């Protein structure tokens, strides 16, 4: 009898509706699969200088935190001073950006798989608090660069990044006329400028006071719940289809 297939259909539908959510159980407290990240986050009591806010739970090692503070770090051989000396206030924001990238265990909802020689994962469209983006742009607008996308297009023949032959050194403001242009275009949309403010629980803070806890933990929980709920909603399709077929199965029986 066809009606005997109904329990099987319901089981298959339930499996489809829950598998997506189960695949996303690692959205919280995770490290990216990338060049210098630890396999799992954990305490690092001696994280260096600007990376120290993550010392209670970090994806970066002490050595990584020290190295990324250098002008030309051995982590990626990337030279901030490719168009002359970068202003110290500007450089502080780039160091903080790198600390967030290397150390944060709270970027799981935005991690995407990539096929790149130096990493298997990246984050995409992280909702960066608007004040953090605005202060980054203000600090860097008078420093100089020669490119609007720093992920690609450099001359690496010397071993570190140099401006390509056709590029011209101009102010950041020339290449990035708005804060959003800087934060979103610089690293191929790793960030998306949020309309939310610091402390809202809805945007990732690049800067925070560790004595008051890590605010990005709450942000990650909020977006992880949204991602999981969306996956489960999408997975209900097979269940609804199965239920719709039940009357026809009864008739066939």
TrEMBL record:
GO terms for cellular component: external side of plasma membrane. One of its GO terms (molecular function) is signaling receptor activity. Keywords: Disulfide bond, Signal. Residues 30-205 form the Folate receptor-like domain. It comes from the Eukaryota. One of its GO terms (biological process) is sperm-egg recognition. The keyword Magnesium does not apply. This is Folate receptor beta. It comes from Equus asinus. The gene is FOLR2.
